[in-house]
Amino acid sequence: MLRCIQLAKNGLGTTAPNPTVGCVIVHNNKIIGEGFTSPYGGPHAEVNAIEAVLDKSLLREATLYVTLEPCSHFGKTPPCTDLIIKHTIPKVVVGVLDPHDKVSGKGIERLQDAGCEVLVGVLEEKCREHHKRFLTYHEKARPYVILKWAQTLDGYIAPDKSVRNTAPEPFWITNTHSQQRVHQWRSEEQAILVGTQTVLEDNPKLDVRHWKGQSPLRVILDRNLKIGKDFHVLDGNIPTLFLTSVSDRSRYEEGMTYEVLNFSADLVEKICGILHKHQVLSILIEGGAQTLQAFIDSGLWDEARVFTGNRTFKNGIVAPKFSGSLLQTASVGTDTLHIYQND
To answer: Whole-angstrom Cα distance, residue 242 to residue 258?
Structure first.
């Protein structure tokens, strides 16, 4: 099952809204096939693992290990349970049940009805951790929310506005290794969100140019549509969703997606609702301070990934205030990375 989880990570950032599943097939204590979920629309992990088995006759005496309950319904691809039954694989070991209403125990039941021995809950907590995006989406009806920011040694995420006036370019708090790590994270999540001021002040591209992978959906909070055509988020290179209070479609830019919402109350809850409607399983919240604090105050966040760079600003925009359980501390060159979990 640990190998299944290891394999499954290869699909991060490419399979949504499907989960990133890993599968291993064992015969006489030897792995004879393994696979992970293909990019969305392609074969599931079980299909890829079965296809990898050179001698299909061995499947009749094999055990199939999989991180998530095999699907039992037709979607973009046929049910994985049907393929398992077709090859008369006698035993299936499952990490965690699938909470999707079209599966949710039906896959296990179908396999058992066909005479297959099924064991559920092997390394369940580790499988839940791996499938946290998919499980949060279906169990809580919202994306898995990751907060991310960089702060100085003295606790600021941006310099004073007066400094911005003389030097408008982005102020890098972290080193290039940390910046690359962020681009890796972007490639693993389905969407990335920033507020209006972050775009106006930094003109970010919000892509993965420093890492190999797929750039996430850009989600921009722009209440009054202040962001003009000369900003990168309107370049049309990456799918972009604007969340705005402006309902006048004549102000919308071609090629962009817009959703109208009321910014006055329960804003974060409404944002999560829209993202759920768009089948966004996970999202990185990258700023600015007001947007990050709004998610913290709402309680609708799961992880906070905080870099502390080796520099000071003495004054400026103070880093968000939050409380959570420290999961990990790591050095990234001269920077320190702390990862927290929402209690």
So the answer is: 5
Which pLDDT tens digit goes with each residue over 23-77? 999 999 999 999 999 999 999 999 999 999 999 999 999 999 999 999 886 666 7
Q: Which residues are annotated as a binding site?
A: 44, 71, 80, 150, 172, 186, 198, 202, 206, 209, 286, 288-294
| Binding site residue list for substrate | 186, 206, 209, 286
Distance (Å, rounded) from C-alpha 327 to C-alpha 324? Answer: 9
pTM of the model: 0.94
Catalytic residue among 34, 46, 69, 188: 46
Task: List domains and CATH numbers for the chain.
Answer: 1-134 (3.40.140.10), 142-341 (3.40.430.10)
159-217 tens-digit pLDDT = 887 765 665 556 789 999 999 999 999 999 999 999 999 999 999 999 999 999 999 99
DSSP string, 229-240: TTSGGGSSSS-E
Instruction: Check: CB of residue 173 under 8 Å from CB of residue 151.
Output: yes
188 is catalytic: no
